[in-house]
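Review this chain:
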Amino acid sequence: MNTIRAAVPIRAGLSGRVNVVTVGMFYLAAIVNAFSYMSLAPILVAAIFFLSIYSLLIVSPLGGLPERRMFCRVFSVGFFMAGIAAIYANQFQDAGQLFSDPAGFFNMATSDARGLSMIQIQVAHEGALGIVLWRSVYDFFAALGFEKARYIGTTVNITAVSLTGVIGIKMIRQLFGNDDYRFRRLTLLVSACGLFWLFAGIHLRDSVVLLAVSVLFYAWLTFMMRPDIGLRLGLIIGWSFLGLLFLGFLRGEFVFVPVAMAFAAIIALYLGRIEPRRRFVVHGLMVLGAFAAMTLYQAYGAELQNVINLRQAGYTDLANAQQSSDSLGMTLIVNQPMPIRLILGSAYLFVFPIPFWSGFQLESAYNLFKSVNVIYLYFVSPLLLIAVIQLMKDKKERTPALLFILFLAAGFTVSIAATSLETRHFGAFLMPILVLSTVPDLREFHVWRQYKIFFILFASGVILVHALWLILKLL
């Protein structure tokens, strides 16, 4: 454990308070995990992952003080949340972890997928890339003498979420330069996110999906900062095709993500404040985008539409099975016509679950993290609203890069509302929202005052929604 503490950048410019929180959280996480598994093995596995990636951040261009600070904080918090999830599974017999999707992924990664190729796994169980990644890590640690226990897979997830935070810092560098205020804002937003706790702590593929989507988002953002038809365009096309491949082997319906990012980029370039000499880039991208869209639709359109329809029907059936017909979600959103579902469903993603306290129990870590996340969103949503208002009011703020982020945040929110209405899927697209939430500068008095007003209004709306829920329950 002394090694871990030495790895945290104590003298590298961190404040004592940040250092104490991060190191203290890691120690607490170590205690919780050791207690739940009755073993020191989870601590050793976490130490190996932490030291390996932290060393990489020191010697590679990925590094930098804010990046290392983000990685340390998110890894420590994620490790602690994995310990909480372990207590739910090991001590409280959490059925969601022991018998549902997490159990299926664990069994596939540790035994059922042995000797199968990624194509063969994909036929039997969606999410083949995540399974292959987990399987490789489980086999590696088994060769070192560790048992194939759940904590190994969740440590992979913790690392993926932590690296997503590092990518987020890179995005802030692209947008705002060396802005320590926004570095710290994003570090707080990522480390406090309940959905990211869920991704880190439970044996699901969402952490890898989050990382893949965020890497692709960063690649497009880099292009949007200096768009040109040439090498940079060739690179982003290459990244997009890789995204199609990887996301197809992680979550089938997410193959639309690279295409959606391309369209968001084209619209942002067309509407944003851009140098006249770069206007030809917009027209070139429009031609390429239209060609790519027609080609992809011709090749995969019917299959993708079938997948989306099946998933939407499946999630609707699940919602009907799990919720009473008079529940707020079923009454106001799931069974409504699509235009109403898009509007109310998009808002619902920021206030679900209703009631917010439904997850505070000892049966499901999954629901616990979701309840924590909605409280988190109560505080983040006013930041997002202020950022949108600033972009709409100030033409100087309306750069192609920021418009691109805005269109992604809005587009992905509407897409999830139209399909699954599942906040776990929404979490894979949270990084554009969190980056956009760093735009408002709360050090300015009028912005801070605006935030307080919007928070009060948002909280009032939440209270009204809960009052409506109570009325529906009593009728």
